[in-house]
Structure formats: structure tokens, C-alpha cells
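INTERNAL AUDIT FORM
Audit reference: QA-55
Scope: verify that the stored structure record matches its stored sequence.
Auditor: D.O.
Record contents follow.
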Amino acid sequence: VCSSDLLSRQVLIYSPFWIVNRTKLKLECGRKDKDTAVIGPLSSQMFFCSNSKISVRAGLDRKGPAYSDWSNSFSVTTVGMTGVISLHNGHWQTPEELIQDPNPCPEAYELGVTISVAPGPFYRTKVITFTPRFLLASSLPYPIRVKQRFTDHPLIVKPQEVIPFDFLDQGKGSDRKST
């Protein structure tokens, strides 16, 4: 018996990335139509990417294009990175469309991005988490109405509810306030 026949081999299989989607949007992540993965709303999945930078776009359930424009590329190798990406919807609604649409689409979705290391034995995997940038939380015993200044579309927040909030108009300065 040869001593090399008695040696064991260790095979290590792991996913380099795990994507967590905490938004209500369907997200597509990858290198702009190459090596992409679609992650459903409020779900997660493994992700393989041959590049250290990815872009993201959102699936839109609206008239116009099926997806938002791609975000700017960002590095997924920097553990501890926290930032914001903007996903422009690619279909700007005219003032007439905004008035007629009971649920208007924002000009852009802003998402928070965090890159961390998976816990315990999965430490080789990086977890990329996408969250809504803005959340409205009501601890009041009655519903409240919230709307962006200079828009005609209020959002109803029910008692004890937490919902994502996206600015309809990505205007600068004082236009970007909610009332």
C-alpha cells in the first residue's frame, strides 16, 4: 500500500456572494446583462460573479420599460462598505401621467447597500444586502397621510406599519421634502 493512497483530500465549496433583497422590488444584479441573477422581493439567493464590481437594476411593474436603468458599478469585495445606489426608472412620467396614475412610479429608487461577512462557518461568503433607503414607520393608533411637497399623491401609513418611501420627484433642495 502506497502512503499517498491513504491521504485524504479536503474539497471546499462555497458561494463567494449571498445577496439579500429587503426591498419590495425585483432586483437584477451582475455586470450589465452578463453573469446576472434575479432576486425576488424580500428574498435572498447565492450569487456567482467573475468580477469584483457589479451593477443593479430593478424590475418595474409599470408601463414603459420592464427594468430601471442600471446603477453605477460598485465593488462587492470591500467588507464593511455601506452606501446608496440610485436606480433611475428609465421612464419619466409627464405631469399628466402623474395626475392620472393612482400609484405613480418615482423617478428613481434609492437603495441602501451593505457588504458584510457571513456568520460562523460561512465566513468565506460576502453578504450583499439591499434595503429601501427611506422607511416610514408609524407608532400612532390611527393612519397618517404623507406626501412629497409639490406632488398630488399622498401615501397612507397604517397604525404600527413600516413602509418604504421613494421620492416621486428627485428635485434638489427644498423640493425634496415630505409633508
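Auditor finding: record pair retrieved intact. The mean pLDDT is 80.
Action required: none
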